[in-house]
Design goal:
CATH class of the largest domain: Mainly Beta
Largest sheet: 7 strands, antiparallel
Number of strands: 15
CATH superfamily of the largest domain: Jelly Rolls
Order of helices and strands: EHEEEEEEHHHEEEEEEHEEHHH
Number of domains: 2
Length: 339
C-alpha cells in the first residue's frame, strides 16, 4: 500500500512540523490511536511507541524517525507487525504565514497478521493524513509578520510546562482545546444549537463558526443555489422570499432570533427553493458543512448533539405544518369548499 497526499495550509511550516513531531498528543485527534509514548527525542531524532485500537484489534508499533526541523521528518519502523512501514513528511514554506504539507507512506502487512488484519492496516494508514489535516485546521491562525523574524512564528503547539494527563486507553478522544471569537461564542451559547453542549463543547464548535452581519435587503442565500452552511439567527428578521427582486416576489416565511435557516440544505446539499433576504439588519451564525464534519473523528459527541438540535427544530416545523394542514382541511370540510 502506498499513500501520497499534499495540502496547502495557512500556517507556517514550523507549526505543522511541531504538530507531526509531537506524537505524545496523537491520542487527542487520531481516532484509532489509543496511546502514544515518546521513547527518545533529540534535535535530529524522535522515537515513539504508538498503540492502535480499531474494530476490536489492538497492537502497537515503534517508529524511529530522523528529522530536520522544520523541513522534514522521516518515518522508519523499528518494531511492529508490519513488513514495511516507512514514509516522510515534508513541510514546504510558501510565505511567513502559509506552507505546503506533503506526506508519503509505504505500508505492507506481515504474514503473521494475514488477510484478516489488512482492512485494519488500510484504515490506519489511509486515515493518518486526514487526521492531521483536520487537526491543522484548528491551529491558531498565523499572526502578521513584524520587524523581528522570530516574532513571525505563531504559538506552536508544544507541550505545556504543566504535566499532561496520560492518554486514556478506552480510545475516547479528549476535547480539542481552542480559543473561539468571544462574540461568536457568546452568540452560540444563547442559541438552540447549544442546548445540549457543555461550555467546553461550545468553545470547540464556536471556533468553527462565523458571526456575520447583514444589512437591509442583503441576500444571504439566493434561490436556486446550493448552500453548505447552517445559519442560526442571532437577532433581526430574515425573510424567505420566492422570486426575490422581481415584481412577483412572495414572502413565504419570516425567521426570527433563535430560528435555524437552511438546515435541510446544510445536510442534503439540495438547491434552495427560495432566497433568504435580510429584512433590516440581521446577525447570523454560520457553520460550514466541511468544518462541521471535521468533528466526526475528533469530537463526535458534539456532532451528535448538534444534529439532535437540528432534528428537533425540523420536527417542530413538521408538527406545525401538520397542524395547519389539519386545520385547513377541517375548515374546507365544514364550509363545503366555500371560502
Amino acid at each position: 500500500m502506498r499513500f501520497r497526499r499534499s495540502l496547502l495550509l495557512s500556517h507556517p511550516a514550523e507549526a505543522l512540523f511541531d504538530l507531526v513531531e509531537q506524537a505524545e498528543f496523537y491520542p487527542r485527534f487520531i481516532p484509532w490511536c489509543a496511546g502514544a509514548t515518546i521513547l527518545e527525542r533529540s534535535d535530529d531524532l524522535v522515537t515513539a511507541r504508538i498503540d492502535v485500537a480499531y474494530r476490536g484489534m489492538r497492537f502497537d508499533f515503534v517508529t524511529r524517525n530522523p528529522k530536520r526541523r522544520p523541513e522534514w521528518l522521516q518515518v522508519r519502523l523499528a518494531e511492529g507487525p508490519f513488513r514495511r512501514f516507512e514514509g516522510e513528511w515534508r513541510f514546504v514554506p510558501l510565505s511567513a504565514r502559509a506552507s505546503r504539507l506533503d506526506f508519503e507512506l509505504h505500508c505492507e502487512v506481515s504474514d503473521f497478521f494475514g488477510r484478516l488484519a489488512t482492512p485494519v492496516f488500510d484504515h490506519v494508514a489511509g486515515t493518518l493524513f486526514e487526521a492531521f489535516m483536520r487537526r491543522a485546521e484548528l491551529l491558531p491562525a498565523a499572526p502578521m509578520p513584524v520587524s523581528s523574524p522570530a516574532s513571525a512564528l505563531p504559538p506552536a503547539p508544544r507541550p505545556s510546562p504543566s504535566p499532561e494527563p496520560e492518554p486514556t486507553q478506552d480510545h475516547e478522544a479528549p476535547m480539542t482545546q481552542v480559543s473561539p471569537d468571544p462574540a461568536t461564542l457568546e452568540s452560540l451559547r444563547g442559541s438552540k444549537l447549544a442546548a445540549e453542549l457543555s461550555p467546553e463543547q461550545c468553545a470547540v464548535l464556536a471556533a468553527l463558526m462565523t458571526l456575520r452581519v447583514l444589512r437591509d435587503k442583503d441576500v444571504l442565500v439566493r434561490e436556486g443555489s446550493a448552500d453548505d452552511h447552517l445559519h442560526v439567527i442571532v437577532d433581526g428578521v430574515l425573510g424567505v422570499i420566492k422570486g426575490a427582486g422581481t415584481p412577483d416576489q412572495v414572502l413565504l416565511q419570516s425567521l426570527h432570533a433563535g430560528d435555524f435557516a437552511g438546515e435541510l440544505g446544510f445536510i442534503d446539499g439540495m438547491e434552495r427553493y427560495a432566497s433568504m433576504v435580510a429584512l433590516g439588519e440581521v446577525r447570523v451564525l454560520e457553520l460550514q458543512r466541511a468544518k462541521f464534519e471535521s468533528l466526526i473523528r475528533t469530537d463526535p459527541e458534539i456532532l451528535y448533539r448538534v444534529m439532535r438540535a437540528i432534528v428537533r427544530a425540523v420536527h417542530l416545523v413538521q408538527r406545525r405544518l401538520s397542524m395547519q394542514s389539519t386545520e385547513l382541511s377541517n375548515y374546507i370540510y365544514k364550509q363545503h369548499g366555500r371560502y
